Amino acid sequence: MKKCIILANGKPPSKNAITFLMRNGYSTLFCADGGANSALKMSLTPTYIIGDLDSIKKNTLRYYKDKSIIIKLKRQNDTDVEKCLKHAIKLNFEEAVLTAVTGDRLDHTFCNLGIVLKFIDKISVKIVAENSLLIALTGIKKLNTFPGETISIYGINDKTRISSSGLKYPLRNTALPFGQKESTSNIALTDQISLKVTNGLVFIIRDFHTMKNNGLI
Q1: Integer Cα distance of 53 and 107 in angstroms
Q2: Could you tell me the domains of the chain?
Q3: Chain mean position to CA 100
Q4: What integer is the mean pLDDT of 49-61?
Q5: Which of 48, 67, 105, 171 pairs as cysteine with 164 (C-beta 3.0–4.6 A)?
Q6: Contact predicate 16/109, CB 8 Å
Q7: CB-facing half-sphere around the CA of 149: CA atoms within 13 A
Q8: Which of 185, 136, 177 has the alpha carbon at shortest distance from 160?
Q9: 3-state secondary structure of 199
Q10: Tens-place pLDDT, residues 122-145
Q11: Is the pTM of this model over 0.85?
């Protein structure tokens, strides 16, 4: 499976988090415009820098001029993160981890959460933000975990139904419409949990560092 990382222009993760992902299959680094500034600070060399290039610093652009593939796209009907995702899809990547997609702009955060849903039929998109890893799920899925791990589940609308096994607070054909009901800080009881999601999608949020330290990524 071809997997990549997309580093956006929000609050970046630690260099350790990115290099860990790169060692574990996410070997191609895309920078969405100003994300290249963060890459430079972390001494990382992106394979691609994509966007309208209005946020990348001149010294950053000069540094990567002969080191990365730089693609300037002036169109304004999609974000720089979306531009990166569309190029990744064109190159047949099947999974992308978005990083630095949260920060001091709540509208950007909401937009990037929506991007996970928007592209789910074309590429699997995850988000690493601060200490959290977010994924979107539908259908029947088994997740490797460990007893005591905290797992939060959020639905989108009241049509989506979730059933679970292996959680302390089980879900039985339950709807978790956003703003009405959620399964925050549920707890795994076993080494594997099962989820059945019908008529839609749910967000699963887990602790990135806990997963990393327990070999779950």
Answers
A1: 20
A2: 3-130 (3.40.50.10240), 135-213 (3.40.50.10240)
A3: 10
A4: 96
A5: 171
A6: no
A7: 28
A8: 177
A9: strand
A10: 999 999 998 999 999 999 999 999
A11: yes
